[in-house]
Design a protein that fits this description.
Strand order of the largest sheet: 6-7-8-4-9-10
Strand content: 35-45%
Number of strands: 25
Largest sheet: 6 strands, mixed
Number of helices: 8
Shape: globular
Structural class: alpha+beta
Distance between the termini: 66 Å
Length: 432
């Protein structure tokens, strides 16, 4: 049985103004809709909600022609860029606003956690807000009282539960809000990106609770997040939105891969390092000026070496030697591998010099990756002193096929395992 149904749902907004802007337009809208009983004439105009470009119309479709069903007990992730329409979709489902066209059918009570502090009265205490939220959801005082201790314990805000919410931090507010939404037995739980405000311990606890709510108690969860790993871990299915339109649907893993692939930039085999790529706060005696691949970065095999050339510049200090670190990330920003070279002498007769680094036995599976770079020095006490750190994305490459080792095909990393299994990595470095 479907717990949620969206049937040709659309939401249109006029930019800048609440009304149509002129009395004649308002009168035309009223006459068409209330006397002639036809659709709003302004629905025939309007542009796609692409926030990055200047449009010609004052009307935009925040959502347009959205159709999907969610079965009872399913956990569905909503994925998309900022401005794709994710929060608008959840607000429509939560009845914060109404759709311009289409119909939404939801079976059961809905608990929503859309923004920090949504549904809280700042002058009321945490305890009073628990009862207020429960009453809004249609629960009796006895039902709320039965769950009160469990809610307070889960939120971790016991010491402040009788303090007005206006004195809570954003993290405490989210903790209490999620505890209320998850424990007051809604049939449908709607969670927006607010969990990102909480600390790592609470995020883990919240995701575990959502898994219990969906699997153990058979309730439906809609989850919006930019954390692709959380979506893959929590959700069975997902939906990708783009510019307010339905772009892709399927399993959570398929949707995350589709989203990452469609938004990843063209592969970058050569890069001049700019200030925006560089992490600030490092000593800067030596900086990375340029980076490029000396291998076929667009068509690597799982067991083919990755060869880099770095151009470095000495600025000050009497640095005799340094070592280089390369971290490999996927386009979900998950760190997959890290390499650290042996220390290499720094040439004293040149201000600018180059090094060639070869990474072997990476055993990466077929997908796109990006690099971060680091040059530093190991102190006598074992501490690492970093001269320069370049953010991930300075270079990117793609492993396209599986090579063979000992006449056997192999894979080293599977996202479902959550672990990396690989042959012994090694590096070689030489001065050019």
């Amino acid at each position: 049985m479907n717990a949620i149904e969206f049937v040709h749902v659309g939401k249109q907004y006029r930019l800048g103004l609440v009304s149509t802007g002129t009395f004649s337009h308002d009168l035309n809208r009223w006459w068409t809709m209330n006397v002639l009983h036809k659709e709003d004439p302004n629905l025939k105009i309007g542009e796609t909600n692409d926030r990055s470009q200047k449009g010609n119309s004052n009307y935009v479709w925040a959502l347009k022609d959205i159709n999907f069903n969610v079965e009872q007990g399913d956990v569905v992730g909503i994925i998309g860029k900022n401005g794709a329409g994710k929060s608008t979709l959840l607000k429509l489902l939560s009845r914060v606003t109404t759709p311009t066209v289409g119909e939404i059918r939801a079976r059961g009570r809905i608990a929503s956690l859309l923004e920090v502090g949504t549904g809280f009265h700042p002058e009321m205490t945490g305890r009073e807000n628990i009862y207020l939220n429960g009453a809004i959801m249609g629960m009796t005082k006895a039902e709320i009282t039965r769950k009160l201790d469990e809610i307070v314990d889960f939120s971790g805000c016991e010491r402040y539960i009788d303090t007005p919410v206006k004195r809570y931090s954003s993290g405490m507010t989210v903790r209490l809000g999620f505890a209320i939404a998850a424990h007051l037995e809604p049939e449908i739980l709607v969670v927006d990106e607010v969990l990102a405000v909480g600390d790592a311990e609470f995020q883990k606890k919240a995701i575990g609770k959502m898994q219990d709510v969906s699997k153990g108690e058979g309730r439906t969860v809609l989850f919006v997040s930019h954390n692709m790993n959380a979506v893959k871990m929590l959700c069975k299915n997902a939906i990708v939105l783009k510019d307010g339109k339905f772009d892709f649907s399927g399993s959570a893993h398929d949707c995350v891969d589709y989203y990452i692939d469609s938004n990843s930039k063209d592969l970058c085999g050569y890069s001049v390092v700019e200030a925006s790529m560089r992490q600030m706060g490092f000593s800067g005696e030596i900086t990375i000026e340029e980076a490029k691949f000396l291998c076929d970065y667009q068509n690597l095999g799982t067991d083919e070496p990755i060869v880099l050339e770095l151009t470095l510049k000495k600025h000050f200090g009497n640095i005799k030697e340094c070592r280089y670190s390369i971290n490999i990330f996927d386009f979900s920003d998950v760190r997959i591998l890290g390499y650290v070279t042996e220390s290499l002498p720094v040439p004293q007769d040149r201000e600018v010099y180059k090094v060639k680094i070869t990474l072997t036995n990476h055993s990466l599976t077929a997908r796109k990756y990006k690099l971060s770079l680091n040059v530093g020095y190991k102190e006598m006490d074992g501490c690492i002193r970093n001269f320069d750190v370049v953010n991930d994305g300075v270079l990117s490459f793609e492993v396209k096929y599986i090579t063979k080792r000992d006449n056997r095909e192999y894979l080293s990393w599977n996202p479902e395992w959550g672990a990396i299994i690989h042959f012994e990595q090694s590096t070689s470095i030489e001065l050019l």
